[in-house]
Specification:
13 helices, two-stranded antiparallel sheet, 2% strand, mainly alpha, globular, 392 residues
């Protein structure tokens, strides 16, 4: 019986990891693929390597929180399989609504439902996690706003990310060892910016592994005989995420970012770097967090900060904009290489359409899923384990 449950659990873990791979690979590599810097297959392969590294290192801290910290008893194999079912259900609902899956939040909700049903919930840990779920969007917004207001315009002037025709590198094969060099149309600046895009993508893949591998692996790691070891569970979750990256993520990589904001590659890289840093830092201290949470609020903050440059910081915070016209399409207000207008001066003759900055309805939908996802998984898990206490 135990072996059958374990097999079912592995299948459920693969299903969850497969869907995570489809979502996170698109978010991580969509901008680079869209810019023609890397191919989809290459992106999926690199994603696999760095997801594994993130899950194997920092992800262990999150896994410990999920498997031992939220409830005061060991997470049994049968309970872990049931939780994976609720995670998969949350993924399905999120996909129906067409938003990135708040997998970490859904996982915490399902385990919390088990704790409520069995009176084993660690309220101190849950309060700690929830406090970071509230603080993280605020951090993402204000970091993005600061960069957008004071840093991004200068970056946009100095950094131009483009790809030239032909290969990035060429190899001199006259000697015994091929010597790499610049491609026929490649400039040093293009080589540096391309390398930066790839490095940031790898960093975000590492962050995705640290936050997402535990969601597919932790429910199978517990104290009951027959459970998987943490190492084996990490490998299974990584392979499942990789499978999703090589298959269903191909379409996601083509369309990522199209609904929330039509932003250039430089802005996308700023968002990726900021969101990855927030997610990795929280994963390091064991907080299950959604990479999407930091990404969405950084995009909104970046646009808001960039849009409020025509007024002073005090006016922006106080909302005193009666005498100033704010350009709401502000992320793309200047062409790459154009000198930024000083803060406090009007930048455009006409305010740009707010839809160029972000889609407010999409933001509301994302925020709603951050509440609905974990709440639904908590209630469903609570009802399930209350009706079938023997499973726990």
């Amino acid at each position: 019986m135990g072996e059958t449950i374990l097999v079912v659990g592995i299948v459920a873990s693969i299903f969850v990891g497969f869907n995570i791979g489809g979502s996170s690979t698109g978010i991580t590599w969509g901008p680079a693929v869209g810019a023609g810097i890397v191919k989809k297959t290459t992106a999926a392969a690199v994603m696999t390597v760095f997801v594994f590294l993130g899950g194997w290192t920092v992800g262990r801290n999150v896994m410990e929180t999920l498997s031992e910290g939220i409830i005061t008893i060991d997470l049994t194999l049968s309970a872990g399989v049931a939780i994976l079912f609720f995670i998969g259900l949350g993924i399905l609902v999120a996909n129906v609504f067409g938003v990135p899956v708040p997998t970490s939040m859904t996982t915490v909700g399902a385990i919390a439902g088990l704790g409520l049903a069995t009176d084993t919930l660690n309220y101190e840990t849950i309060a700690w996690i929830l406090s970071w779920w509230i603080v993280t969007p605020i951090i993402g917004f204000w970091v993005g706003a600061t960069i957008g207001r004071y840093v991004y315009p200068e970056l946009n002037r100095r950094v131009r990310i483009k790809t030239s025709d032909g290969p990035l590198l060429s190899f001199d094969r006259t000697g015994p060892i091929p010597v790499p060099g610049l491609g026929p149309n490649t400039t040093r600046k293009e080589l540096v910016t391309t390398a930066a895009v790839i490095v940031i993508g790898c960093y975000m893949a590492f962050s995705a592994g640290a936050s997402n591998v535990p969601n597919a692996a932790a429910p199978l790691v517990g104290g009951e005989n027959g459970d998987l070891s943490a190492e084996v569970a990490i490998v299974v979750a990584t392979l499942a995420i990789s499978l999703g990256g090589f298959t269903i993520a191909r379409r996601t990589m083509e369309s990522v970012g199209g609904e929330l904001s039509d932003i250039p590659l430089l802005a996308a890289l700023v968002v990726m770097l900021t969101a990855s840093t927030i997610t990795t830092a929280l994963s390091w201290i064991g907080i299950p967090i959604s990479l999407v949470m930091g990404s969405v609020m950084t995009i909104v903050g970046l646009g808001w900060g960039r849009a409020t440059r025509p007024i002073t910081a005090r006016e922006a915070i106080a909302g005193d904009t009666e005498e100033a016209e704010i350009a709401l399409g502000a992320i793309t207000a200047e062409a790459p290489g154009e000198e930024p207008v000083p803060i406090g001066e009007d930048e455009t003759e006409e305010a740009l359409d707010a839809g160029d900055l972000f889609n407010p309805r999409a933001v509301v939908k994302y925020l709603s899923m951050w509440v609905i996802g974990p709440s639904m998984s908590t209630l469903l898990a609570y009802g399930f384990f209350l009706a079938l206490p023997g499973v726990a």
